[in-house]
Give the backbone structure.
Amino acid sequence: MGLYLLVRAAVLVVSTAVASVVVFAVMAVLPGDPAEVALGVNATPEAVAAKRAEFGTDRPLVTQFLDWVSGLPTGDFGVSYVTSDHIGPQIVDRLGVTLWLVLFGMLTALVVAVPLGTAAAVRHRSVGGLLLSGLSQVGVAVPAFLAGILLVFLFAVTLRVLPSGGYTPLGEDPGAWFQQLLLPSLSLGLVQGAVLSRYVRSAVLDVMREDYIRTARAKGLGLYRALWRHGARNAAIPVVTVLGLQLATLLIGAVVVERVFTLPGLGSLLLDGVANRDLLLVQGTVMVLVVAVLAVNFLVDVLYAVLDPRLRGAR
Amino acid sequence: MTRPLARLVAVIATVTLAITAAGCSSGTSGDSATGSSLSVGFVAEPANLDFTSTDGAAIPQALLVNVYEGLVKLDQDGKIVPLLAESWEVSPDRKTYTFHLRDNVTFTNGKTFTADDVVFSINRVKTDWKVSLKSAMDVVANVEKKDDTTAVVTLTKPSNSWLYRMTTRIGAMFSRDGVADLANTPVGTGPYKLESWRRGDAITFSANDSYWGTKPKLQKVVLKYFKDATALNNALLTGGIDVISAVQAPESIQQFSDTSKYEVIEGTTTGEVVLSFNNSKAPLNDPRVRRAIRHAIDHKALLDTAWAGRGQLIGTMVPPTDPWYEDLTGLYPYDPAKARDLLAQAGQTRLNLKLRIPNLPYAVASAQVVKSQLDAVGITVDIEPLEFPARWLDVVFKQADYDMSIINHVEPRDVTAVFGNPDYYLRYDSPRVQELFAKADAGTEEEQVTAMKEAARIISEDAAGDFLFLFPNLIVAKKGIAGLPKNLVSESFDLSVLSPSEA
Amino acid sequence: MTALENTSPAARGRRRWRRLNASMLVGGALVALVVLAALVSFVWTPHDAVHVDAAHRLAPALSDGYLLGTDKFGRDVASQLLVGARTTLFVGIVAVGVAALVGTPLGVLAGMAGGWLSEIVMRANDLLFAFPALLLAIMLGAVFGASTLTAMIAIGVATIPAFARVARGQTLGVMHTEYVLAARAAGRSRLAIALRHVLPNIASILIVQASVSFAIAILAEAALSFLGFGTPPPTPSWGRMLQESQELLFSTPRLAFLPGLAIALAVLGFNLFGDGLRDWLDPKLREHR
């Protein structure tokens, strides 16, 4: 077990290192000199040269890369070409918004998936179960941004019960914070909930066939109660791992949802960075997202190992 | 449905209701127009707050007149009026300007505004500014302090445009001790000061208690930024903001048709939406091809479809608020047959043109109409949207690697910059026009108007670009907010004259 | 992964025909509808899908020969939907094609070779997995400019790991079957074994993967078009139709509703078809999904 974890951790480190090279390389071929962009049009060549020196973009690429990558572990992402601000704190600031969104999105997914999937499994031979399965298929087919647009139209514009977008930090006004996160989380979570419900269904179906459930039912427990008392933990294992993998999807889905709801999260930071050609900012944001996905995959692997020691040797 | 399942559904329904009810009872969030605070929705967020080193309209829109003030400013009719200078005299040779400054002005860092700051600010444009606009100050030979409240500026030659430029960001007055962190901490003399800036979301101004002039009616103004036109509309509909400063989805304006709740203000801006041609590169270096394109475009249809008919057809680079405006829409009436003739004369019957546009709503919409209309006269157009600002600036503006583009030239009185400089991205080189511009700048007011009018007409006749429409000033606000401008004549959005609704 | 049963492929095949399931039929019908719409759009559309007509803007459905009305540019919505199907399929085919052509050989290679080679391929695969389609497309769009091509490549590259994983898993199973063991004993080359025995046996599960990936590709293209990183105008694309009609949701909801419905039905179709196909290929799983 220890060795397995060690190997996985080493893989994580190597992957992160390779990813940083890839991200830097892609950004390095980006057309448009950040110094020229920062100075706008009709800038004098001397001013551009001075700005390049200030940014450090006149140095060899390898030097620039090493300089950038060596700062990453300490959260030093460099200084933005456009805002002249340190990028690290900006990313941390925006990451906060995105993490809340992802967390609430995941909760939504669970709240939707567990009852829906369980019901679909329990009633899998009836019309009701078929309808529930169908419903989850339809849910999977709706893009998150479309769900967002429709939710805004319904709850914000028509019913006027929730705000259409924006963000207030938790510390400033918890009520407003919650209301503003509600619709984005729903649009992100409902679709993922539909995906997850299919895994819940099959996990519950597996558990239902187990002897201990039959025994419990024979003792007079209702099916749902029996499942809750005896089957929940076993059904949870595959569901939790799928949920882990979905975290990555949620993180990326947040990019689109943030645009619909004007949330100042990591996704809007990334899109702003691309529009303003804020090279280092884009580089840093992409890096954070990629490392987040890698880390989630690593955790899922660890979880596998912890839950099922037989897997230690394989893969 | 089995009973446990039904119970579960009931629980979920209850929870959902409770949450929405909570949302209902505490009301929608955001600053509402109560008391002395307003929030105004904008589309382009400044990348930073330093317009001395960063281009773009968003920074002066927010800061000029509100935080920074110049010696002079433009009033609602586009006339130059006193601001930090109580009055000024011009010498008979029109080369020396003597400004008499107000003596009760302080910066938000506590320092008193004196002639030393005027000297500092004007010289700093020449020495430290990094944006191209700084060339407007090249004509200044010397600036000196006569006494604390008198500053004298000497020009190398008479220039009508110089004093006008002093109303723009170029003329902003900085404190000698207030330029350390312009990107984040602006220090000015204006009615507002920066309270906070939450990147990607909002800038908050609060009233400057030591302001020298009429105190603003609002204690607090929040400038909220939206990437998405629909999100901006929704914010007003749901009470997240009080004013939409510029509607980006004009089709949606009927959402605000309830006049008991909303007020729609429609007027002019100084933004000419131009279908720009690369005048130095084949095939658009041939005037016949450019003229053909102008004849091939049905401007009325374009405005109706692309921007819901909001805006004005002008046929020229001069907005109606300038003294030398002339309606030139008659120069190139919609005439596809004539367009085909011209193309045939030019030997260009199978043209293929690259239309490289910024990925902004008005440009994307207009481009599709232009493509369809040019299709009808046998010109094939490939639309290529580029990320705005960075990529568009790089490819089109800097490298002039394009055939046609569409951009809203927003700066006031930019006809001289756009068509007077052969290196500008349209690469329009007309010695006659350049001569007229020079004459206009040096001449009397009357000579200026005559020369500018002639230049603008030549430019339009030459088909140096096609002037699609004048971008409308389209503001939607909650009922009863006073002070919103009908016409936009300057590059700032004056927040100090706004007052809240009674409601 | 499911181990293949020891019954002969032929015998299994005969039984399958009797198990055609509802998912597959419904999904297949929806997919066929999208394909049909795309094919029809090549030879016929009711109107020119990109022709702007100010005189007929925002025409209601069933008026002036406009079956589904027109948009704010006066363009026929029905024609746009038909041509949009073509865009959607095109993006899907290229993206899934790239993913299958690169991912499958990698997976088969890893499955057959084993050892450090397998390890390297699969680790590279994991790394690629950390660059989701949307992120790749935004990066590529920033570098080369957003276009249908960058969107397709980004989605395709991001889908490679899915194919590689499935291919490897299935290959591992096939490698232990008697006929592969027999072929190896007979001294057949690895390439021959891969082509003659492995590929035919994993092909069906790859088709399932392709169908599911297709659905994901459609969703990704729609999201990219919504963000402005997808198909540039005026080429009709369902995602951009949706984005362009957002401002009219209030007054003309049909304009946003129709492309939204088209996206959802196409995704539903490919998902159902993939699921149904999986059940059909492997009846043992039927109860599970």
Chain A touches chain C through 47 residues (CB under 8 Å). The longest helix of chain A spans residues 223-261. The CA atoms of residues 220 and 226 of chain A lie 9 Å apart. Chain A has two domains: 2-74, 88-275.
